[in-house]
Design a protein that fits this description.
Elements lengths: L5 E4 L11 H16 L9 H14 L7 H15 L4 H19 L8 H9 L3 E6 L16 E4 H4 L7 H10 L6 E5 L2 H10 L3 E5 L15 E3 L5 H13 L2
Parallel strand pairs: 1-2, 1-4, 2-3, 4-5, 5-6
Helix pairs in contact: 1-4, 2-3, 3-4
The structure holds magnesium ion (MG).
């Protein structure tokens, strides 16, 4: 009898690297703006658009949980501040954002992602819990996931408890029946621990563990190691 019933996964930098996709999205966004709102070039470039997002975030900190809305707001403001009407700003901000999202979903999965998810899905409910705006429906890992919650849906980001609670409500499980898997020491491991989940740290870059947090129940350097790490946690629970 397995005591673990569900595995929740972070997405960005846990199942794929996001570092290439975001700059590519920004490049496509800016290329669109230069073509359709050419006056923007006199006022903004890619770094200053990034800065504009940070400035808006400072004024409206709650947008940290709504990063799609934040990006569209920044694009709209930049277009308007470059001399275009509010109507054109809305239209082109949405179109430029759509191009960003296309690029954002062109991710290359880490080795063994599909094999690992396929194996786990035969034994556990699998969920995705993301602070980002990846849409699981646009990704090749979609068939393996039973549920998906984003910070934008629950208006709160990990390490806050809301995303973990959403997983518990969805599955009607207790935290000790769940393992959360992620790359971020604070958001995923500390957050998962605070919610009472077992945790697995995906450390593909082999970084040292930061002293200020309690270590995860297991650490893996490759996604292929996750099923064995889960078995080890199951064994340690039985021997308690
Ligand atoms: Mg991550």
């Amino acid at each position: 009898m397995r005591s673990i019933k569900a595995i929740t996964f972070d997405l960005d930098n846990t199942l794929w690297h996001i570092s290439q996709a975001i700059p590519e999205g920004e490049r496509r966004t800016f290329a669109y703006l230069k073509r359709h709102c050419p006056d923007i070039e006199a006022h903004y470039d890619i770094p200053s658009l990034r800065q504009l997002m940070l400035d808006i975030l400072k004024q409206q900190p709650s947008l940290t949980h709504q990063i799609s809305r934040l990006r569209k707001l920044a694009l709209g403001q930049a277009i308007q501040k470059s001399g275009y009407s509010n109507e054109l700003a809305q239209l082109h901000a949405q179109a430029a954002f759509d191009l960003f999202m296309d690029a954002r979903h062109e991710v290359v999965l880490f080795d063994y992602a599909i094999e690992m998810l396929d194996e786990l899905h035969q034994h556990y409910q699998l969920g995705a819990l993301t602070n980002g705006n990846a849409d699981i429906n646009r990704l090749p890992v979609k068939p393996f996931f039973d549920f998906y919650y984003s910070a934008e849906q629950v208006l709160s980001s990990k390490p806050n408890p809301e995303l973990f609670q959403a997983a518990l409500s969805h599955t009607s499980l207790t935290p000790s029946q769940c393992i959360h898997v992620g790359d971020h020491c604070e958001h995923d491991i500390f957050g998962g621990q605070q919610a009472g989940f077992y945790t697995i740290w995906v450390n593909t870059d082999r970084k040292p563990w930061p002293q200020e947090y309690l270590p995860a129940d297991a650490e893996v350097h490759c996604l292929s190691e996750i099923p064995a790490a889960i078995s080890d946690i199951e064994t340690s629970i039985k021997h308690r």
